[in-house]
Amino acid sequence: MSNENSRHLYELAVKNIPGGVNSPVRAFKGVGGNPLFFKAGQDAYLIDADDNRYVDYVGGFGPLILGHCHNEVVEALQNQLQQGLAFGASTEAEVKIADKICELMPSLEKVRLVTSGTEATMSAIRLARGYTGRDRIVKFEGCYHGHVDGLLVKAGSGALTLGEPDSLGVPKAYTDLTHVLPYNDTDALESFFAANGDEIACVIVEPVAGNMNCVPPVPGFLEALREHCTKHGAVLIFDEVMTGFRVALGGAQSLYQIEPDLTTIGKVIGGGLPVGAFGGKTEIMELIAPLGGVYQAGTLAGSPLAVAAGLAMLNVISKPGFHDELAARTAVLLSGLQERADQAGIPFTTTQVGAMFGCFFTEEKNISHFSQVMSCDTERFKHYFHSMLDNGVYLAPSAFEAGFVSSAHGDKEIQLTLIAAEKAFSALPK
Questions:
Q1: What whole-number distance in Å separates Cα of residue 337 and Cα of residue 243?
Q2: Comparing C-alpha atoms, which of 258, 224, 220, 226 is closest to residue 240?
């Protein structure tokens, strides 16, 4: 398989783009080799600059739940293109998508559109601080909430560990307000809140962790978060930028029956275009300008194109049985992968929540903690990634990213994937 055009494009890219990429994971640093450059996507496939076709399990890191270039999404975009690209003013479409979001996710009594998931989490945390009058926040190791200064912190080693900056340019004094707790550890959570609960403005969590691969919550963890936040007057924020409308129509909160105070969403509601949103209880949301003193603004918030694509996407996925069918298809894929790994004698474990999945090269059968993820065999993943790539399957170029199945993935695509996986597993070093 030739990648000559991708290599050439990368050589050109590094001249004017830092690292040759506009988002770090695209650089293939986690897997080695030169990054691919893509020029088209159709249904379940990506086509690179050399016209190679790949079954795509990245899906734009989640938003393309219908696959690439779904006809209803494309039609909605074409219609909006005829009307205008940006107005810097309100549109009827913003009202319609807000109504749809609040209908599908009832904990969002009011919602504010923004332009990215990072902006959504940043705004939600500012709002929580304004609402509570407190400064300290809690996050969990292995959970990513965008490149917000106060959330770019290393994983803590204990319940009371204060965050250390995980990026140059982030002041230590700022991250001192961020406490990092172990994900899925209810004992650590209880101890921390017992000692510090009245100082905490909010707890932000991915209800299904998707940035240390895919790690579902253990029974009782989300319930404990809700209990302690309620008891101590802290705001519970679910970061559903990745899981919202993806793992279930009402997001992870509907799947696990836990109601947060605020929710951040994105991905699916833009249909593949840049978008984000945050919303929640009326009493909290009405502190946002122009009603209250918590300032937030965005010139391109509610982009007519993003809203048109997102509304079309939400309407399609609202059809009865859509998510059940998608989850069943994902389960077939994962059982096939596990079967072939077992046959090849490769230690391998999968996780699944709806159409979101994780693959781990490990002897452990149940993945629930960050330490387990970090002990997985990343070298084996690198070999697996490149073998799958050579056989026409595109996975995220990192052992710490979740995978996604779309409604465009049919029996043919799953079979192609399993054939590629059988070759990849058999070629891996034992």
A1: 23
A2: 258
Tell me how far apart the alpha carbons of residues 165 and 371 are, in angstroms, rounded to a whole number: 20
Model pLDDT for residues 153-211, shown as the tens digit of each residue: 753 222 233 444 567 787 888 788 999 999 999 999 999 999 999 999 999 999 999 98
pLDDT at position 166: 64
How many alpha carbons fall within 13 Å on the CB side of residue 359? 28
CA atoms lying within 13 Å on the CB side of residue 40: 8
**367, pLDDT greater than 70:** yes
In order of their start, the domains of the chain are: 4-69+320-427 (3.90.1150.10), 71-317 (3.40.640.10)
**pLDDT tens digits along 69-118:** 999 999 999 999 999 999 999 999 999 999 999 999 999 999 999 999 99
Sign of CA dihedral 163, 169, 171, 174: negative
Task: Quote the DSSP letter at residue 394.
Answer: E
Catalytic residues: 144, 239, 267
Q: Which residues contact 413 (CB under 8 A, 6 or more apart)?
A: 44, 45, 55
Point out which residues pair with 349 in neighbouring strands.
Answer: 360
Torsion angle (degrees, nearest 10) of CA 25, 23, 250, 65: -80
Q: Tokens 């465009």 correspond to what residue?
A: 408
Cα–Cα distance measured from residue 414 to residue 324, given in angstroms and rounded to the nearest whole number: 17
Give the count of alpha carbons within 13 A of 97, CB side only: 33
pLDDT at residue 156, rounded to an integer? 29
| pLDDT value at residue 429 | 83
User: Which residue's entry shows tokens 């090849």?
Assistant: 344
Q: Kindly give, in sequence order, each residue whose CB lies less than 8 Å from that of residue 420, ignoring residues fewer than 6 positions away.
A: 387, 388, 391, 392, 393
